[in-house]
């Protein structure tokens, strides 16, 4: 078991730190802008793509069959012996199973499909298997979380453990859980992926931000999912 | 981006009022923001919105640059007859977008 220090015996979702208006937006599917991407994802799910002219639905049936999947991601990919994120998994199906091109990170299409798959698991507890081959990657993610970086020389843990609940400028520092991605941020005026959030926090400490598919970005996502055990999938979450 | 999310009841009793909710996918770029290279991003907002029901105007709004992206509107109408709700909005590019949904009055 990897335990993220004192605060995380019972993790506390960023939802609880958001104001009542932001929470109301997340709670009402007709107001939550993330559902614009869910709706776009539903169209893409049944649209034939690539040289094989197959759609996601051709192989997977109705998208409700994806319930529970996102709660297990990032998951272990035996083919590469590394963890794979949900977005990478979807792109793998695009290239290997559909004969289509990779969807670029942060593109509306990739966000839409990822959000559609993840929302099927909304309300389910995060369920990463930390007893098997993911163990070393989770440990690498925890090391990343605790290592000081950037010109400000701060670790993720400095803010999200030691100073969680305190203010930084105008913003309350949350515990930094990643259980609601892709997520709608009012600041972005848009839905964004976990790697985008990670880049924002890394830029904040003036570190060189990691590209979306960097192994460390996946390891940290994995560690955060283990650390947030007890929380449920909130995708598409809304945050300030 | 994509189509708006429209939420209305499928059927309503004649004479009852019902709620219409629409979330429109639009960047609502204020014209005040700069991109990551410091270049000003051109203003692109929806400036007018209209909803008609069975051919009659039931709601109209003018939008301003301070409105956030993906605006959400909720308003009510009274059920008179089975018919179409037609939503039309125009942005700074002059693009006129519309969507429509049927409402059954019993």
Note down, in words, how this protein is organized.
The complex is a heterodimer of chains A (about 240) and B (about 110). Chain A has about 240 residues and is mainly alpha-helical. Helices cover about 40% and strands about 10% of the residues of chain A. Chain A has a three-stranded mixed beta sheet. Chain A has a two-stranded antiparallel sheet with strand order 1-2. Chain A has a two-stranded antiparallel sheet with strand order 3-4. The radius of gyration of chain A is 17 Å and the shape is globular. In chain A, about 40% of the residues are buried. The model of chain A is unreliable at about 1-10 (pLDDT under 50). By secondary structure, chain B is mostly beta strands. Chain B has one domain: Immunoglobulins (Immunoglobulin-like). The interface between A and B is medium-sized, with 14 and 15 residues.
Q: How would you summarize what this structure contains?
A:
Chain A is mainly alpha-helical and 240 residues long. Chain A has helices spanning 14-17, 20-27, 34-45, 56-60, 86-98, 108-119, 135-146, 156-162, 194-204, 215-227, and strands at residues 75-77, 82-84, 167-168, 171-172, 183-185, 190-192, 238-239. Chain A folds into 2 domains: 8-29 and 129-239, Cytochrome c-like domain (Cytochrome Bc1 Complex, Chain D, domain 2); 35-119, Cytochrome c-like domain (Cytochrome Bc1 Complex, Chain D, domain 2).
According to CATH, the homologous superfamily of the largest domain in chain A is Cytochrome c-like domain
Estimate the strand proportion of chain A.
5-15%
CATH-defined fold name of the largest domain in chain A: Cytochrome Bc1 Complex, Chain D, domain 2
Largest beta sheet of chain A: what is the strand line-up? 6-5-7
The span between the termini of chain A is: 32 Å
**Distinct helical segment count of chain A:** 10
Name the CATH class of chain B: Mainly Beta
